[in-house]
## 1
Amino acid sequence: MADVDAAKALSGLLSGIAQRVYHNNEAVTEELLQRELYRELPREEFTLLHERMRGLLKSIAAADMDPAQLEAFLTAQTRRQGGGGVTAEQAAALSRFWKSQRVRVRESLLAQSRWEPGLRGLSWRVDLQTAASRGGAGGGGGPVALVELELGRAGQDSEFVCLEFDELKVNQLLKKMADVQESVDRIAPRT
């Protein structure tokens, strides 16, 4: 029976860590988890267990481990010498937790990494002004680029922003985009 209780407590700890780290539930604190799940464990021992499980869960989530990767990772963790490894029971609990929560954790990580509002669509066209549209005046005008951006937040209706660029502004925009691409290439070269 003690093994079942230990497995439930560890499962609860992993769920609590995920609630705090991946689902932004501020109510789930380390103190709450100890009080509810590990009341008998000294504070220092609980802190070590909490940090170890939190670190392992972060490693697993950051790599978005598939079942084979997870098994290899947990096997390596059970073989570690000293205080950095996990027991077979802890590895089994981590495996069960990840298999059931992988999709939710991944969705949460993706949602946290998105900029809001997001670009949902973009359309553009180039218009040429005629003498009649300029009021009969000669000269000037030239082509005008019209850009419509569809922006939106998750679960909300889109908003539309219309932009108008003359040739000079288009060239300035293209130069800025080239500068951004050059900066990105310096950090993460294209393969």
Note: The chain has a mean pLDDT of 89.
## 2
Amino acid sequence: MSALDKADGRRTIVIGGPPTTNGDLHVGHVAGPYVGADTHVRYLRATGRDVLFASGGDDSQTYCVTSAARLGTTPRELTAKSWGLIKGTFEAIGVDLDGFAPTDDGYRATVYDYVNRLYELGKFRMRTVRLPYSEATGKFLVEGLVGGDCPHCLADSRGGICEACGLPIDFDALIEPWSILDPSDPVTLREADIMVFPLEEYRERLIAFHREKESSWRPHAVTFMRELLSKPLPDFPITYPIDWGMPAPFAETPGQTLNAWLEGMPASMYCHAHARRMLGEHVPANDDAWLAEHDNRLLFFVGFDNLFIWAGVHVAELIAHEGRYILPDTLLCNEFYELDNDKFSTSKGHLVWTRDLVQDVPRDIARFYLNLTAPEHSRTNFSRAALEKVAGERLVGPWNDLAATLAKLTAEAGVEDEPLPVSPEARGYAAVIVERFSLCLQLSSFSLSRAADLIVQNVARLRQQADRAGEQGLDRDALRLRLGDPYLQLRALITSASPILIDLAAEAARVGGFEPRMAADAFDVATTTAFPVPALSMRAASARA
């Protein structure tokens, strides 16, 4: 077993980057880091690990300004509304957070403590840089306020980081910059004195960190970091001369705000502190779980377009705290998830809202399809027609046939409440089921798509077993001797699939009187019992009403 997957008693802290509160979450948002993080967290819990999973809103992004302008509201009103929408969407799709933190005084204090500590350690520098500037409004345009073409890959981009290639874009490097708020507004370049974090000073330490970790990271993340670290790193802006965001606390930068991306790490610290308090734990400080003395395991689940921030900037920040904090054990990076073979786009209305999807189809069906089509190594595609066909034909139909056949055979045998003998072979098969799912859901070989496909494979196999038993015309005693094997394996399958089919597993555990526990010895039993196998549906209760 890899050191990443060893059950060593350490608490695991899982981060799915705080989502930008400029609207609700569409399917493309949740299909990457959030479903992946939630599935892994549920696996850890099913194996008895101590895990903490939390998130919160990211209110300071300039995308909140542009989205508010497009919607005819204010950024503050939009972020407040979006926080509630996002929290509700996570609950609707079954992303089981221990807490979803508000952007309150505790949040802001945590950010300022983190930033001021780096400042007092002398980690920041003042720089004079050229930034895009709106001649009409007299304001600087940064990050989501300015568009243009990426100087690295020539794709349409925004300031700061290119979504297409993931590389950072220097302050004045956008090709033919234009204002997102008013494309007709002439954009020039003006100098500004800002505070920066000199990433180049940490390049060698970042190289050493990534060399140590790259054997467990996905290939695209490895090649991206190799490219990034093969050349001098840019200065990362700590402050911007704009009016949206948290006011910068430095005397050198009056009137400026903190770069929203800087909040990611301390925001995550606060989110987990908030979650711990929700769980009734004593939390002496909001960054307590990150302190090196506790030796917790830290995991990042992020999209490819955020690799520069989470695998570069945030790791360098943690290093810059000079041993105060743990560093991430690993980072799970996903690619883009498309809709009908085109990019999800809120502004163009090309999207499927997650809450709308789970109002129409059960969230187990949505989660199964999102896992099966997860963008793990390349772009993948969401299609409602494909969801209906694939989930219906590969999962729902075969599952319900299996459930009906077992119910019929159980009734014929009259063994609803009596112990059923289990063969040594079936115990071995149950252990294999748990082992194969564990390989898919543990970090060193993590694959949502393979885990979802394992559900399909095992349902088909158990259905064939049940069908053969039914076709043989066995009497009651013979059936009693045969039914224990498929029921034990079905328990193993439901348990192993519980991180994906969350509602099915909960109902099966309730009616079957068992707790989903992913351990091979959980199925090393001489007898088992029959139980009513819950059916699956392609329509949510709200859609059927």
Note: The two ends are 48 Å apart (CA to CA).
